């Protein structure tokens, strides 16, 4: 019988607050801050410092990192949050529930820029493949693709109520696109290096772009141009001037606040410059002062020159009442925000700022931290900071206690205690650079540091109780000594260090301190001297043997009681970085920097098998308790599950985005926990689903074949041209496995429907000829549908984003069959839009064949009249409904109990009217007379 194993699947990911690759932005309500956390989105409540909504992808696509985030300015659309991923896919999320509404495939490389239109119904995405794609958020489908840039698209901005789009790229150019005519209006140059970011203010007066240049470039937008200015017919952007920057690093992000009075320029360093944008009155006043100072300097120079007997040509007269406003008159440096670490992204809050400040600015740092600042004219003050839920650097060790309800992780400056079931951080203790760790019961923990110290931590109080100078080099391993009955860590523990020593430690009696709390102390009882640096130590579960991995690529095994040499395991070509002994003491597995796992017998030290396990160094390996199954992790970012008896790879778990340094397994083997360089801690749970080795092998071969096939299709006709057509428009989607499957489903449905129609016609002929025929038996596959309804059901089940590519894959014969059903489908009111879309794609694709096929001409003539009438009916219905809703809105506004929707606007009108009255000279006297008259009548 074929042996079956139980599958492990990803269950929980925690420890990441904000990825350095992704930007941050606020949700449409302005209450939550969205940050990319590797393959998912995290929505943080800044005031409470807790995650609010979890935007988690499906397990099948868990390894796709989030590269960019955008939120809709309008919360009316359900899919108001979008995220761009490493494979070029765009995901649309519901801001309230955190559910993934749709996945859009169109880009061939990682998405690099996202921006919603002001209405929130259209989304623009830019990518490293140099293309810009416009998406219909409501229909969840692509509209068109804009080609023209010759390098990665870095930022996007909508203008003119979403009718125009501005894109910038690493090719040093800014392009302005007309979305109605789908062509490039203007190409703006001037930057001397890659353009990294740009933004436009809310009133669309200015567009600011930043690059590696030492200044920001400011452009005037045509809608805000004053009368009399010289604009060419097609120019949308006109250079206004350049603003000198404070930082020498390149610009990473440029963002305006909600009302356009502030603009933040974040450099690729630790600073962000915040500029004040003055209105027209203040800018004119500043320009007049500048001209006045200039005139005073000129007059002073002329007086000095007259005293010296020289003559200076008078400067041309300038209008002091209406001077020319320059960019420095409008943009004024307000504050410079200096952070403790490198800033990755900035975002202004769209909600109203607290009283006394101009705006609220949130930033993400590259040390896994989020900070929020209040900006005012005097200073920039920190308001909130989110840092407890993750380490500042990569995680070097993880360990579970005996009851598997506490998890400890170490990094370069802190130890954190987690709840492995929920991912909540329970304690954070400052420490040294922890390379290894172990629990002592449930009360204390041990940490071995890079400096050679041994730290004892009291978990209950969350304090560091004692620091012992244990070794002269870094401590690489802490292994509890098991008793003969199998109790782990009851007697003491062993440490291995780079100072060539293996030291044995025992726990001393718990001593009472001044505050009557019990503390743990340890004493060194034995030392085993080695000839090389000790990289790993492992002890057999019965406590008989101790194995020591040395820098000379060998593993030496000693008797625990006498410390006499027992075995030497040699065969690795590079140093052994990790090892473990099975619970029955029969096998020892070693993992090395030579990418191999070697399984040895503990009786004679013979090598049972050498396995090429990972594509990079193996960093940790552990046996599952009471089995010969083992897990290994490596620098190739994967976790692998092995059978050490059959030497077979059972499962490959992918999810980490950087090197995996460590792993730990629960005592029952029902879950494992891994820690990585990407600062994430992942838990993988054992499920009841069975897996078979042969099936997993076939699945891995299919995945490899499909990946190679995708690459072949991508470059079948050569590499993509580096110089695309100027402002060309293309199809938004791309060919994927889903689109191929959808095309096959349509063709199968057409063939099934055709066979069913033939059977029906044959049955009718038999009935006419014989007068009486047997009862017709419909095809079971069609599930009771008629042939037309069956094909319609299959076409309707295809995702809107995949429909166009699926129709493009149909041959002409199947396209003609499909068009024959459109006349009948158009009679269904809810399918008119689908019918029009299918008809349009097929017409554009097979235009030449359709026009030259006599049988198709009559079909096209009928469809022309029918579809025109059906679309007109739907349009009239929508117009009637809109007019009816406007009428209902007016009726509600007339009712006295209706909600006062325009309260803010009405309040502003009342205040303006009162201010006008108070400005009149006799306004106060009239009010006094009215008050006197009212008091007399009363």
UniProtKB/TrEMBL annotation:
Ranges of Basic residues composition bias in the record: 926-938
Coiled-coil segments: 743-770
WD repeats: from-to residues: 59-103, 104-137, 146-187, 188-229, 388-428, 569-610, 611-652, 653-685
Stretch list, region Disordered: 714-734, 911-938
PROSITE patterns: WD_REPEATS_1 (PS00678), WD_REPEATS_2 (PS50082), WD_REPEATS_REGION (PS50294)
InterPro entries: SSU_processome_Utp12 (IPR007148), TBC1_cilium_biogenesis (IPR051570), WD40/YVTN_repeat-like_dom_sf (IPR015943), WD40_PAC1 (IPR020472), WD40_repeat_CS (IPR019775), WD40_repeat_dom_sf (IPR036322), WD40_rpt (IPR001680)
SMART domains: WD40
Residues of the Small-subunit processome Utp12 domain: 788-889
CDD domains attached to this UniProt entry: WD40
Pfam families: Beta-prop_WDR3_1st, Beta-prop_WDR3_2nd, Utp12
Keyword annotations: Coiled coil, Repeat, WD repeat
Compositionally biased region (Basic and acidic residues): 911-925
Family: Belongs to the WD repeat WDR3/UTP12 family.
Name of this chain's protein: Small-subunit processome Utp12 domain-containing protein
Biological classification of the source: Eukaryota, Viridiplantae, Streptophyta, Embryophyta, Tracheophyta
């Amino acid at each position: 019988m074929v042996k079956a194993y139980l599958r492990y699947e990803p269950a929980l990911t925690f420890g990441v607050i904000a990825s350095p690759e992704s930007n941050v932005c606020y949700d449409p309500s302005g209450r939550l801050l969205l940050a990319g956390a590797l393959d998912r989105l995290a929505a943080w409540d800044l005031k409470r410092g807790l995650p609010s909504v979890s935007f988690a992808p499906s397990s099948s696509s868990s390894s796709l990192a989030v590269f960019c985030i955008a939120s809709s300015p309008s919360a009316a659309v359900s899919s108001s949050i979008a995220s761009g991923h490493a494979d070029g896919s765009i995901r649309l999320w519901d801001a309230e529930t955190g559910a993934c509404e749709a996945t859009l495939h169109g880009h061939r490389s990682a998405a690099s820029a996202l921006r919603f239109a002001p209405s929130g119904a259209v989304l623009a995405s830019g990518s490293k493949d140099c293309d810009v794609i416009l998406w219909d958020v409501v229909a969840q489908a692509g509209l068109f693709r804009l080609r023209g840039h010759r390098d990665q698209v870095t930022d996007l901005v909508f203008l003119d109520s979403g009718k125009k789009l501005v894109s910038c790229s690493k090719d040093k150019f800014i392009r302005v696109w007309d979305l109605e005519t789908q062509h490039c209006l203007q190409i703006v140059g001037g930057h001397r290096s890659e353009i990294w970011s740009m933004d436009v203010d809310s009133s669309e007066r200015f567009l600011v772009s930043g690059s590696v240049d030492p200044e920001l470039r400011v452009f005037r937008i045509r809608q805000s141009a004053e009368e009399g200015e010289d604009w060419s017919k097609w120019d949308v952007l006109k250079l206004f001037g350049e603003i000198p920057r404070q930082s020498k690093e390149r610009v990473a992000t440029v963002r305006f606040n909600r009302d356009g009075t502030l603009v933040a320029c974040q450099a690729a360093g630790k600073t962000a410059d915040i500029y004040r944008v003055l209105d027209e009155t203040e800018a004119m006043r500043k320009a007049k002062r500048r001209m006045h100072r200039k005139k005073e300097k000129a007059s002073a120079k002329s007086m000095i020159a007259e005293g010296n007997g020289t003559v200076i040509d008078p400067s041309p007269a300038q209008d002091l009442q209406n001077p020319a406003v320059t960019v420095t008159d409008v943009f004024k440096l307000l504050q410079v925000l200096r952070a403790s670490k490198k800033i990755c992204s900035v975002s202004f809050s769209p909600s109203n700022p607290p009283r006394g400040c101009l705006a609220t600015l949130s930033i993400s740092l590259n040390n896994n931290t989020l900070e929020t600042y209040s900006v005012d004219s005097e200073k920039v003050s920190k308001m909130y900071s989110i840092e407890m839920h993750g380490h500042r650097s990569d995680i070097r060790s993880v360990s579970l206690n005996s009851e598997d309800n506490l998890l400890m992780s170490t990094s370069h400056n802190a130890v954190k205690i987690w709840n492995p079931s929920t991912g909540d951080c329970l304690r954070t203790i400052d420490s040294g650079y922890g390379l290894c760790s172990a629990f002592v019961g449930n009360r204390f923990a041990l940490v071995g540091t890079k400096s050679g110290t041994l730290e004892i931590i009291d978990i209950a109080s969350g304090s560091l109780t004692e620091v012992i100078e244990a070794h002269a080099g870094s401590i690489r391993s802490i292994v509890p000594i098991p008793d003969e009955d199998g109790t782990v860590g009851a007697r003491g523990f062993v440490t291995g260090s780079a100072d060539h020593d293996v030291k044995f430690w025992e726990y001393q009696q718990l001593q009472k301190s001044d505050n009557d709390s019990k503390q743990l102390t340890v004493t060194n009882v034995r030392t085993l001297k080695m000839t090389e640096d000790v990289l790993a130590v492992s002890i057999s579960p019965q406590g008989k043997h101790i194995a020591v991995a040395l820098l000379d690529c060998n593993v030496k095994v000693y008797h625990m009681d006498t410390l006499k040499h027992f075995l030497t395991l040699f065969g690795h070509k590079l140093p052994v970085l990790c090892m473990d002994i099975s619970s029955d003491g029969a096998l020892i597995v070693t993992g090395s920097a030579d990418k191999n796992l070697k399984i040895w017998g503990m009786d004679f030290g013979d090598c049972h098998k050498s396995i090429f396990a990972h594509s990079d160094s193996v960093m940790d390996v552990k046996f599952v308790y009471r089995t010969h199954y083992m897990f290994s992790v490596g620098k190739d970012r994967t976790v692998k599950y092995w059978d050490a008896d059959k030497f077979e790879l059972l499962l490959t778990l992918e999810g980490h985005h950087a090197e995996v340094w460590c792993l730990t397994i629960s005592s029952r083997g029902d879950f494992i926990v891994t820690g990585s360089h990407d600062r994430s801690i992942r838990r993988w749970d054992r499920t009841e689903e069975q897996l078979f080795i042969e099936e997993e092998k076939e699945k891995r071969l299919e995945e490899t074949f499909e990946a190679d096939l995708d690459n072949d299709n991508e470059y079948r006709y050569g590499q993509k041209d580096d110089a695309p057509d100027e402002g060309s428009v293309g199809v938004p989607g791309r060919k994927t496995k889903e689109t191929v499957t959808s095309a096959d489903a349509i063709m199968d449905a057409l063939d099934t429907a055709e066979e069913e129609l033939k059977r029906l016609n044959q049955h009718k002929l038999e009935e006419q000829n014989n007068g009486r025929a047997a009862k017709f038996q419909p095809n079971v596959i069609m599930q009771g549908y008629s042939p037309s309804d069956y094909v319609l059901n299959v076409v309707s089940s295809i995702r809107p984003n995949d429909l166009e590519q699926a129709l493009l894959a149909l041959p002409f014969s199947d396209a003609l069959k499909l068009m024959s059903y459109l006349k009948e489908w158009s009679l269904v009111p809810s399918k008119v839009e689908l019918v029009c879309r299918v008809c349009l794609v097929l017409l554009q694709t097979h235009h030449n064949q359709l026009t030259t096929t006599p049988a198709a001409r009559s079909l096209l003539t009928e469809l022309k009249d029918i579809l025109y009438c059906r679309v007109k009916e739907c349009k009239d219905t929508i117009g009637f409904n809109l007019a009816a809703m406007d009428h209902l809105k007016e009726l509600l506004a007339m009712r006295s109990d209706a909600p006062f929707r325009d309260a803010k606007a009405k309040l502003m009108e009342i205040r303006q009217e009162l201010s006008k009255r108070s400005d009149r000279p006799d306004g106060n006297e009239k009010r006094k007379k009215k008050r006197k008259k009212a008091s007399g009548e009363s």
